[in-house]
Prior knowledge:
- By secondary structure, this protein is mainly α.
- The chain has one domain (3-173).
- Helix content is 70%, strand content 2%.
- The protein is built from six helices and two strands; from the N terminus they run αββααααα.
- Strands 1-2 form a two-stranded antiparallel sheet.
- It is elongated.
- The relative contact order is 0.16.
Amino acid sequence: MAVFEIVATAFWAMLPAYVPNNAAVLFGGGAPIDGGRTWGGRRVLGDGKTWRGTIAGWGTGMLVALALNQLADPAGDVLGVSLPIFPDSALVALPLGAMLGDIGASFLKRRSGRERGAPFPGLDQLDFVVGALVLAFLANPGWFSDTFTLPVITVVIVLTPVLHVATNGIAYALGLKDEPW
């Protein structure tokens, strides 16, 4: 696989996982998942993790995967690469895993004494990637292995922090986030 094809595959395959957290920010609000509960004197998750944001993020990620399935052949022809199609299992697992990874990171941040919005380098940039990849593997190991080769995973790990910092900076500048990370 050529370098361009690896990068295109990595970006394409991860789009259903990249979009949910942004959608959760746009459509979030409402009741927090933890219902305001505390554990060890700290919130379990915090007000930033809501049912509405989680469901909206998951749903938006699934819609992205459905749209990509329709665009895979024409986009692949234009780019000169073969782009992956998302089976139903991956269509559900990638965005759900992204949301669960982000929720898990929030839990870890609260346990480590960090307040909502406090930076946690590394975890902030890759939490949703780990969740998405683990759930996609569990949901469809064959598709996962065919799509997420070692070079593709390497690009995802390198590309994601750059995209994460850029999109969060844009959201901060637009007033959609309280902090730029």
